[in-house]
Design a protein that fits this description.
By secondary structure, this protein is α/β, with parallel strands linked by helices. It has 12 helices and 13 strands. The strands form 3 sheets. Strands 3-2-1-4-5-6-11 form a 7-stranded parallel β-sheet, sandwiched between helices. Strands 7-10-12 form a 3-stranded mixed β-sheet. A 3-stranded mixed β-sheet has the order 8-9-13. Helix 1 packs across helix 7, helix 6 packs parallel to helix 12 and helix 9 packs across helix 12. The longest helix is centred in the middle third of the chain and has 15 residues. The chain is globular. The relative contact order is 0.13.
């Protein structure tokens, strides 16, 4: 009888973390032994999960809970206004506890381009980039094995929460940079399924930044399907992401700057949010929804 792979998940209460946990628990071939790191009580996670309360600012404390684990997955959303960077502490703890594999919480755009790094300077993305660079260094020194999943935006979550400029209930839309540049994105469930797939395909994803995508889209295509699904004409505001970023930097507000950076990198056509290769990853083993399906489902979730 084979021993189950021991998985520790940080951030199981978040939008993505909940679905990663669900996918891990539903996996039967193979099945996993799943534990969760939590800042507080998480009794709602169920009896099949081992729960460990911890302080994400204390690597030594985290390391005590990580001993014997095979994989550490972070699904924690970093607070750009906080000095605490959970992934940095988790990485330190994983190395202390000799955890073989680490999946950082970098489920976002591709920050590895020189032009991207320049645009992201001075934003809340800088700590995330620093952790990514440190993880590469630690990997090269043989301290830990990494798999970084780069998936672009969470398209369903963004549509349902007004992130990215589309407000379904209000029938309003912001079209950035003309709305014609192509992007790729994923639903939360697709990313969660991909995480499980990546755990299984260890040799394929070992020490790699893996770019994955479920669907391609543009601002204008989303607007088209939203108006079709709601049978309504949206009130449209056109914006230039470069100008918006300049204004955000002048404000000095870190949250505004970070959001403006994300919008600039997503919609300006630079490629930081378009992963053509990711559309092919996994082939038929990874079920992908169409843009229309994602938009229609989001409209239903919003109750309109």
């Amino acid at each position: 009888m084979s021993t189950k792979t021991k998985i520790m998940l940080a951030g199981a209460n978040g939008a993505l973390g909940q679905l990663i946990l669900k996918a891990l628990l539903e996996s039967t071939s193979p099945a996993f032994d799943v534990s969760v790191l939590s800042r507080g009580s998480s009794s709602s996670l169920g009896s099949r999960v081992h729960i460990y309360q911890t302080d994400y600012s204390d690597p030594s404390q985290i390391a005590q809970h990580l001993k014997g684990q095979d994989v550490l997955i972070s699904a924690i959303r970093s607070d750009s206004a906080s000095a605490v960077v959970p992934d940095d502490a988790l990485l330190s703890a994983a190395i202390m506890a000799r955890v073989p594999r680490f999946f950082p919480s970098e489920f976002t755009l591709d920050f590895t381009r020189a032009s991207t790094l320049e645009i992201a300077s001075g934003s809340g993305l800088v700590p995330k980039i620093a952790v990514a660079e440190r993880l590469v260094r630690e990997g090269k020194e043989g301290r830990i094995e990494r798999t970084t999943i780069v998936c672009g935006g969470f398209l369903d979550w963004g549509l349902q929460n007004g992130f990215g400029g589309f407000h379904i209930k209000e029938r309003k839309a912001t079209i950035n940079d003309g709305g014609k540049h192509m992007l790729t994105g994923c639903t939360l469930r697709f990313v969660a399924a991909y995480v499980v797939r990546a755990i299984i395909l260890r040799d394929v994803v070992k020490n790699k930044r893996v770019r994955v995508a479920e669907v391609r889209y543009s601002g204008l295509k989303i607007l088209h399907f939203l108006e079709e699904a709601t049978s309504a004409a949206f009130e449209v505001e056109n914006k230039n992401t470069e100008e918006n970023l300049i204004k955000a930097r002048e404000s000095g507000n870190m949250l505004q700057i970070t959001y403006a950076v994300l919008m600039r990198l997503s919609y300006d056509g630079s490629g930081a949010a378009y992963f053509e290769d990711g559309l092919e990853w996994g082939g038929k083993a990874m079920a992908r929804k169409t843009l229309k399906e994602i938009v229609d489902e989001s409209v239903k979730v919003c109750g309109t």
